[in-house]
Amino acid sequence: MTEMFCTDCKADTMFVTPECLDGHTLGDCPDLMCERCGLAVTRLALLITEEVVLVEAA
Ligand SMILES: [Zn+2]
Ligand SMILES: [Zn+2]
Predict the structure, then answer these.
(1) For residues 1 and 54, what is the distance between their CA atoms, to the nearest angstrom?
(2) How far is the CA of 50 from the centre of ligand 2 (A)?
(3) Ligand number with the minimum distance to the CA of 22
(4) Which of 7, 30, 32, 44 sits a CA distance of 20 to 30 A from 23?
């Protein structure tokens, strides 16, 4: 669980790791999901661009 700025909520919210369907091991999955609105982001993209990359929320 990580606190990050959510561009949808326009506020700092808690991000949790969603159920991973890509076969990443626990703790190795770069995906995060806003607990409040469900916005999905990936930490890898954040590291590269410092911009939240929008991913279709399931
Ligand atoms: Zn994953
Ligand atoms: Zn949000």
Answers:
(1) 19
(2) 17
(3) 1
(4) 7
Cα 24 to middle of ligand 2, angstroms:
23
Q: Which two tokens stand for residue 21?
A: 């369907």
Distance 45 CA to ligand 1 centre (A): 13
pLDDT in tens, 25-41: 767 788 899 999 999 88
Pick the closest to residue 32 from 48, 14, 49 (CA basis).
14
DSSP code at position 18: P
Counting DSSP H helices and E strands in the chain, the numbers are 1, 4
